[in-house]
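Q: Convert this sequence to structure tokens.
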Amino acid sequence: MNGFDEQTRGIVNRDSTDKRVRSFKLCTYRRKLLAMLRKPISFLLTALISAGAFHISQAASSKKTFTQIREEFTQATLFRFGESFSKARALPVKPKITQRHPASEWQVEEQSRSIERVDGFADAEREGAIERGMRFVYRTARSPANFADYGSDYVWWFAAISNTVRDERLRQMARDMAIACARRWLLTHRALPKDADADTIIDFVSGLDAIESLGLRDDQLKEEIRRAALRFTARDFLSFDPKGEPPPADVPDECEYDGANDNPRGAKFCHVCKRRLAMRTRYDVWYDALVTTHMGDHYGITLGAHYADVLRWLPALAPYRAKGRGTDVEFIDAVYSITHLVYTLNDFWTYRLDTQLLPQEHEFLKASLPKALAARDADMIGEIMDSLKSFGLDDSDPLINKGTLFLLAHQNRDGSWGDVHNNDVYERYHATETAINGLCEYTLRDERLSFPEVEPMLKRWARESTSLRN
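A:
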């Protein structure tokens, strides 16, 4: 009997132990699973959820008092868990980069608001927007097809919110949702498949790291995964070996015609449809490896290399320049590489960061926010905002104030942010998550790094970059 069977009595439904263990690959977020586009049932469920077929109109519910909403939530069929959570270690997330549309082409159903500035009155407005967004994300998680593809992602995000946001009511709401998602995820991840590949191992590590942050452990399964991980190389996990080479520019993106994501490095044509392949940017390859090794090192299983092995290539990506439009892929990947540098260094909204350690990165994020606002990209806006908040900025800063006003004024009636007609459920809920992250106020701890041993390296780079500018 494994560790979870002992620790999750009353959490995991034992009647489900005879179900087949399903293996879902954790594709990186530029190469997301195309399962929804391939499964008509999944596609239909997503469309119905987006259309609100299964739920009461959010426009109507937004008129209710917070007390009424809280009472409704209390009566909801969420799993209740009395114990307090241990510190959530949020798992790495990075968005799937898709075609960005000019502001005039975005299809949104924004709630009508006119907010001129953020001050005391906006606290309730902010909390209400966050709550509506969290409910939207949870509704997407209730779809079996969505949860099959993104279950571990849902678990880590709700758990992380429950342990980092300042508002106690929102923390409790996220905690209940995290436990409900963890319960479901455990049902299909009791054992590692014998033929598990590198992506399957990453999926298990991501989910189990989130589950462990909730106070549950399975040391036997963890050791099984550790042994399995030894069969694979850094290239299998990260697409390159950071111990001996910088982030490469010859890693194919998934084929835009057939979705194939197993084309070998250096391939110029898809092995399935024979059409020309686009290459991933160096930024994308680097921060994908950064978040993967961060997750592995936190969980205690090496996934091809260590976090410091990947971080050492940060100077190779500089200087960062906010050139071109906010829809340029190179610019987008540069922004997300820096936001995920911040996330992995401060353990995802846990610690405050010293701007003197990352002077170039701090300035680049500040220069990038106006471009994200011009592109009306809620996903990017949210990531830049919560990254800047990690450096100590708040609504008193004009940039953060503008971002907050934008997000409060552009939330869709169903609680989401972004294009309401987008049939990709991941893009819908991830944009909503990052918008929420941008609006949240966090209980940031003292200045600290998730991996203190990398501080001397960061200080050296900061001195070098400052001397070059002077």
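The two ends are 63 Å apart (CA to CA).
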